[in-house]
Structures are given as structure tokens and as C-alpha cells.
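Input chain follows. Return C-alpha cells only.
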Amino acid sequence: MRVMIIGGGKVGTYLANYLISEGHEVRLIELREEEKQRILLDVPEKIVYIGNGTDPDVLEAAGIRKMDVLAAVTGQDEVNLVATGLARFEFMIPRTIARINHPKNAWMFTDVMGVDVALNQADLMAALIAEEMSLGDMITLHKLRKGKFDLVEEKVAPNALANGKKLRDLAFPSQCTIVAVLRKGELIVPHGELEFQTADEVLAVVHKDQKKELARFFDRII
């Protein structure tokens, strides 16, 4: 995958380094010349371009027309919004991702403005804290379809409703599927005869509105 990152701060540099380690082709654009030496401590010089990520000429020079994804992760919402808009409507990039720094600006980061995925750090943090308080041991591993569905992990408690029951005998939420079960270091592919045991780690994809309903099958009964 070919990814262009706008913003060479800590987030952008870390993202670039991670994507490179995963074998992806990366271009990183940073406005501030004085930041270049810091950036080069983590990523190769050949991928770094100094310039304005909202300047079409700079984007062209960095090879935006060959990119599959553009991720705008600067500390300025207006820059991220303009960069993703240019990528989508001027250069027809298939996928755009934007970082939201200030939650009050979230309403602008929409498909109409050229943003496929908006990452609101404050909302993500608040949601995770709320989940930890209300969903026991359930952990959200990944959000799918712009947050409509979640990939979650839940550990089976000793006296949970699901403990000792077979998968086929449990009426899980309508928009939920059990993806896998991890048991004593082994991966088990779910089937109707699978019997849940204490400490099983259950991976499931579930609609965000049905997470509490799913959690009650695996959490301890008080």
C-alpha cells in the first residue's frame, strides 16, 4: 500500500515508521525545515519532503497521484481538512484519513469535505474510558465501518452465562458474530459444538449498540 502522511510531528513520524516496518511505501510531508533532522532519526531521508501539505505543487512533487491513502495528522484541524479535501477532489485518492485535534471541529470532518475516516482522539479516549467502566473485561480492539461495528475481546468469567454452554445454545445479539476463541495459547475456530470455558478469550465483531448485550454472556454474574 502507498501512503502519504501530512505532518511530521510525533504522530506522523511514528505512523510513517510503523507503516515502513510493515512493508508499505510511504511519503511524509512536513512544513517545518527545522524538524527534518529529528524526523530523520526515525525514517529514511528519501521519504521526507519539506513543504506545505496543502500546496498542490508540493503534493505533486511528493507523488500524490500514485498514493492509495492520504493521512493528514498535523496538529491543525484546518490543515488536515484542506489536505484531505485536495487529496479526494483534486487528486482522486481512494482513501483519506484525518486527525481531529479539537472535538468541536468534528462536525466538519465528513464525506462531503473529503474525509473517509476522522480520528477524534478525545472521543476515542472518552469512549474507551466509558467502556472500561461499564463493560467489565470487554476490550475494544478495533472499530469497523466508521465506528458502527467493533472488534472486541472478552474473557469468560467463572460464573458467566456462557461458561459451560455450547455456542449453538446461546442467543447472542442479532448483529454479532463470534470470530475466534483463544484457549491456553491455542486458536479455536468457532463452531456450534464449541463449549465455552473459564478464561477463554473470545473475539467477536458486534454492532456498537449491542456491546452491553454481548458482554452479559461473558462477564461475571454478581
